[in-house]
Amino acid sequence: MATTKWIADPETTEVLFNATHLLLHNISGYFRKINLEVATEDDDFSKFYGIVFTAKVDSVDTSNKERDDYLKSIAFFDASNFGYLKFVGKRYESRNDEDILIGNLTIKNITKPVALNVEFSGKITEPDGLTKVGFSVYGKISRKDFDLNLNTMPDLGSVLIGDEIKFNAEIQLVKLVEESVIKVP
User: Fold this and answer.
1) What backbone phi and psi angles, to 5 degrees, belong to 181?
2) Is the pTM of this model over 0.90?
3) Sign of the Cα pseudo-torsion (122, 181, 115, 16, in order)
4) How far apart are CA 114 and CA 16, in angstroms?
């Protein structure tokens, strides 16, 4: 058996999130700078050796500079002290026709277990010989679990942002060329 290494194609991979704003509508955003590396047994993603995803907190983008600056500030992500958020995959399960990736998410040095739904989109080998696979990954977290707290607006009597943060990742992985494959003893 061989270990195969995969990396995210930065041109086609995106990690989006959304949260309820003023309990009225959803605000969406994404991280511009991400990294994802996966090591599998041959090409079998259910038998992975490692999945590590990182997002540079300072790259958060909600299409509103003032909001982005606030999210990067000490009041929320505290990007100057906690530059990255990180997910490390631990195990893969199939439950009632759903594929679940279970791992640990770390934000602001707080690590919590997270279960992510995974949908396989397909696998192709391009004319140049590159093998690519696609996945949709989605889930949700409680922002309070990661000390991502916001003040209320006293004059409105409501919170600025809901507790539940939903995210969706559209991922395209590229298989590294043969010389990068490491044999497992």
Assistant:
1) -75, 130
2) no
3) negative
4) 16
pLDDT in tens, 8-65: 998 899 999 988 766 666 788 999 999 999 999 888 888 888 899 999 999 999 999 9
Distance between CA 97 and CA 27 in Å, rounded?
Answer: 31
Higher pLDDT, 151 or 45: 45
pLDDT of residue 162: 74
The helix (H) or strand (E) run that includes residue 39 is: strand 34-41
Domain boundaries, the chain: 2-183
Torsion of CA 25, 84, 180, 184, to 10 degrees: -100
Nearest to 135 by CA among 173, 90, 92, 96: 173
152: Cβ contacts below 8 Å, ≥ 6 apart? 158, 159, 160
State how far the Cα of 180 lies from the Cα of 3, in Å rounded to an integer.
9
Give the position of tokens 């590294």: 176
CATH number of 2-183: 2.40.128.110
